[in-house]
Design goal:
This protein is 31% helix and 22% strand. It is an alpha/beta fold. A 9-stranded mixed beta sheet has the order 14-13-12-11-7-10-9-8-15. A 6-stranded parallel beta sheet has the order 3-2-1-4-5-6, sandwiched between helices. A hairpin with a 7-residue loop joins strand 12 and strand 13. Helix 3 runs parallel beside helix 4, helix 4 runs antiparallel to helix 11 and helix 5 runs parallel beside helix 7. The protein is globular, with a radius of gyration of 21 Å. The N and C termini lie far apart (63 Å).
Length: 396
Amino acid sequence: MASIKMGVFGVWRGNSYIGLMLDEPEIDLVAICDKNIDSMCDDKRLESIPKFKDFDEFLTHGKENGMNAVFLANYFHQHAPFAIKAMNEGLDVFSECTAASTLKECVELVEAVEKTGRRYMLCENYPFQNATLKLEEITQSGALGSLLYAEGEYNHSDSTEGLKRLTPGKYHWRAWMPRTYYLTHSLGPVMYITKTEVRYVCARAAHSDLLYEIKDFRRNYDGSAHLLCEMSNGMTARITGCTAMASDYGRYRVCGDISGVESGGYIPGGKVRQFWFEHTKPEGRKKNTALYKPVSKDDKKAKNAGHGGGDYRVVQNIIDYLICGKEPFFDVYRAVNMSATAILGWRSCLNHGENFKVPDFRNKEEREAVRDDSLTPFPDENGNGATLLAALPFEE
């Protein structure tokens, strides 16, 4: 019998993982939950799996039927409260996308993990694409020398019609999310490749006239945000949020004092490029550049999964964690480090690039300083509760 009895909360995004979980003999899908569940279950393999619209009913049924873990794929800014509730009920938690939307939630999430002893993992998928794994391999080999600089860039734009489909409702989170907040796809790979965390952040955002034209249904009308981060090893990293710049690529880049590596951009075919100075290239090498075609042992299984195989490898990480005891890189402390960077990055944008220290949530004194910090740009379903702007102040 499967030793992982999983429940999935949030089917719109969760569908990318549900199919992968059904293919794994180690995972038994016990229940699924979504407020719009009636219109979201096309997979015939889900016909016999209990479905719920209410999270509490989902948890109750799950516990009665041996559920021991929950995969959270609900709304972007609402993961922490459900993660905490699940852990308090004795379940392990796997949270997709971002861990928390306020500094107060960061504190509460960390303390829930520490108090309950439950296992927690952030299921950020971009670090586990083929090219990113190759960047990590080269970087961790020491071939770059002292790490000095890194870049993580994520672009995701759409037509007005497409944005409307992604924003079902005036108070949907996508309409109120500042540009720095969705940074896991840019910062996550940089953290994983370099094995670092953010210590300080300052940021700038830029207004978009094109997005301002649709401000009636999307209030986050900035086009980009760039964050400059001091990392825990002393290097500098330039990170974007989810940008809507007219740029046809995402990019990841790490530079040392001996060599540098990068993927994306103008580099073709998902390859990774390495560069050396003339005076630092290895003895016997004629060229100061090299191109690698990343190939992983699990390519055949991963190639049909979402996000360049990243979704498949996230599921494998879950199995490794729960069955083999292999600790994930994106534990609760690194998860909230990303969330806090996003939150404070936006405050920096609103304050003309002010520099902010990102709390170390392992440190109880640093937690206390932000324990009651619940500032948020997100309104509730009735339009109440937002305490920060969703975009830079702009006058026509």
